């Protein structure tokens, strides 16, 4: 999650999921039973954490970070792209310039579905220069990647078209996602029926925050958490300061999840969610200690499953 202009440090068999058409039956024949759309799969948190381990290794080998314009960012992008290519996605790298350095977005389309109705899920892949960025935002990037790989494993064929994205230079002011949105034609922007953003979803002292932008998307996430018996709150700390903002400004319905950054967990929140009151949701926000030890496994597991749940529900 990017810093604000002032004090941001204080403030995204094979399962065939297709509908069976049950029109008029042959006279005298029993009506065909309705067949439910396949449920979203469980996303193995061990697999998500394996991606985080790889991102940590990349940062360690490249000056301790994965920041825009640095070798660690491009190596992170190459890692994600290789996984998607092997899984059958159509990938594209979009190049831009920010602060005198070359940046990259990675876009991955799953073949099939109605391309006039596109469901997107995305996260920023860059870290700040001061650390490896494992919660911010390896957590969102890894969960979106593992959800995309789950789509491939399931052979999922939804009604709508699925697109996944990993943004560059978010930490410099949403540069990559804004570049993507600004370079879409009006017609192609109108084809995006929803953009889901996942930015910091494994904070070590987590809260469970849901974006309140689009009512249908918000309800999808709230329904998921209601099913777990976990209370949620509306996300305000990062409102408008992650990669959903350019989409929202362009009129695209947006939503997402967040587990908190530098704000302090209240006593009421600790009573509701556990953890430590009077302490930041993420004490290592934008610091060198944002490494693989800076992750709450329960939050990462729940939110990774929520990513998949929303992708399946909203793309049927």
Uncertain runs: 4-36
Q: Averaged pLDDT, please?
A: 91
Task: Give the total of beta strands.
Answer: 8
Cα-atom radius of gyration: 19 Å
Structural class call reads alpha/beta
Rounded to the nearest angstrom, the distance between the terminal CA atoms is 30 Å
Protein topology:
Elements: H1 45-61, H2 71-86, E1 90-98, E2 101-110, E3 114-124, H3 134-154, E4 160-167, H4 175-182, H5 186-190, E5 192-198, E6 209-210, H6 215-228, E7 233-234, H7 244-249, E8 254-258, H8 267-273, H9 297-315
Helix pairs in contact: 1-2, 1-3, 3-9, 6-9
What does this structure look like?
- The protein is of the alpha/beta class.
- The protein has nine helices and eight strands.
- An eight-stranded mixed sheet has the order 1-2-4-3-5-8-6-7, with helices on both faces.
- A hairpin with a 2-residue loop joins strand 1 and strand 2.
- Helix 1 packs antiparallel against helix 2, helix 1 crosses helix 3 and helix 6 crosses helix 9.
- The protein is globular.
């Amino acid at each position: 999650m990017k810093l604000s202009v002032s004090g941001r440090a204080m403030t995204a068999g094979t399962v065939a999921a297709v509908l069976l058409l049950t029109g008029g039956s042959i006279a005298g024949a029993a009506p065909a039973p309705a067949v439910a759309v396949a449920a979203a799969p469980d996303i193995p948190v061990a697999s998500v954490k394996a991606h985080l381990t790889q991102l940590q290794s990349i940062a360690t080998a490249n000056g301790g970070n994965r920041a825009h314009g640095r070798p660690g960012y491009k190596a992170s992008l190459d890692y994600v792209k290789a996984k998607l290519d092997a899984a059958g996605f159509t990938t594209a790298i979009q190049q831009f310039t920010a602060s005198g350095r070359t940046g990259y977005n990675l876009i991955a389309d799953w073949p099939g579905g109605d391309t006039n109705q596109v469901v997107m899920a995305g996260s920023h892949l860059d870290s700040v220069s001061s650390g490896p960025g494992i919660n911010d935002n390896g957590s969102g990037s890894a969960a979106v990647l593992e959800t995309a790989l789950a789509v491939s494993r399931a052979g999922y064929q939804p009604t709508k078209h699925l697109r996944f994205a990993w943004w560059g230079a978010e930490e410099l002011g949403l540069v990559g996602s804004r570049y993507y949105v600004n370079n879409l034609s009006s017609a192609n922007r109108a084809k995006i029926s929803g953009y889901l953003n996942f930015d910091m979803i494994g904070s070590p002292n987590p809260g469970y925050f849901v974006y309140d932008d689009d009512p249908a998307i918000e309800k999808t996430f709230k329904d998921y958490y209601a099913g777990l018996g976990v209370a949620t709150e509306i996300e305000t700390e990062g409102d408008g300061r992650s990669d959903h903002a350019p989409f929202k400004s362009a009129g695209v319905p947006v939503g997402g999840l967040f587990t908190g950054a530098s704000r302090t967990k209240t006593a009421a929140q600790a009573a509701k969610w556990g953890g430590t009151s009077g302490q930041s949701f993420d004490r290592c926000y934008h610091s060198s200690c944002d490494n693989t030890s800076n992750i709450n496994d329960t939050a990462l597991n729940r939110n990774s499953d929520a990513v998949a749940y929303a992708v399946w529900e909203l793309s049927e």
